[in-house]
Amino acid sequence: MYTKKDLRNYLQEISSEAQFVMFNYVSSEKFYIELKCKVERDQTVEFYDTCTREWIKKLSKFTATTWIVRNSFPKLKRLVFRKIYTCHRSSFNKKKKPDFESRNQECKARVDFRVKMINRNTIKNDKMLKEGLNMSILIDFNHTHKVRAPESYNLLRYSSEIDED
Question: HSE (CB half, 13 Å, CA atoms) of 23?
């Protein structure tokens, strides 16, 4: 369990110069946050992909959740980079199983990363871009299942980091 203050402090810690656009916190299992932060400009897609993977790993560890890539957008005109992660208990890439241990809980929780282009036209319309806050992170943490229940831990994805701890 973590409080609103713990979550806010943690997100500021893992995000460079984070500013919160929206922070709706109901509980540790239900919140909606939009924050903007700074990432290096004029980098490759692989660089931004690595940044988002590291960020989502840290969020996963803090919230005891697992996230999978839902969409990535290779050719964008108005954005430099965009990637959407969804809860591993969503219906994405799952078969319908009648049994209780199914990972498919049709969960709608998601995390959306966007890196905006910075040029004179985009700076005119977005005051946070003037400050260099070019990454927007939207966290819709509204799970349709229990996150910290004992049966939820059984369905978390395995990672090699667990062996190290």
Answer: 15
Q: Compute the CA torsion angle 48, 141, 157, 155 (nearest 10 deg).
A: -170
* Phi and psi at residue 60, to the nearest 5°: -60, -45
Does residue 164 lie in a domain region?
Answer: no
pLDDT tens track for 38-90? 999 888 889 999 999 999 999 888 888 888 887 788 888 889 999 999 886 65
- Measured distance between the N- and C-terminal CA atoms of the chain, rounded to whole angstroms: 20
Domain-embedded: residue 163: no
Q: Is residue 59 assigned to a domain?
A: yes
Q: Does this model's pTM top 0.70?
A: yes
Taking alpha carbons only, the member of 138, 107, 126, 143 closest to residue 24 is: 138
Q: Domain containing 81: what range?
A: 4-157
On whether the CB atoms of residues 67 and 60 are closer than 8 A, the answer is: yes
**Would residue 165 count as lying in a domain?**
no
- What residue type is 17 in one-letter code? E
Give every CB contact of residue 149 below 8 A, 6+ residues apart in sequence.
Answer: none
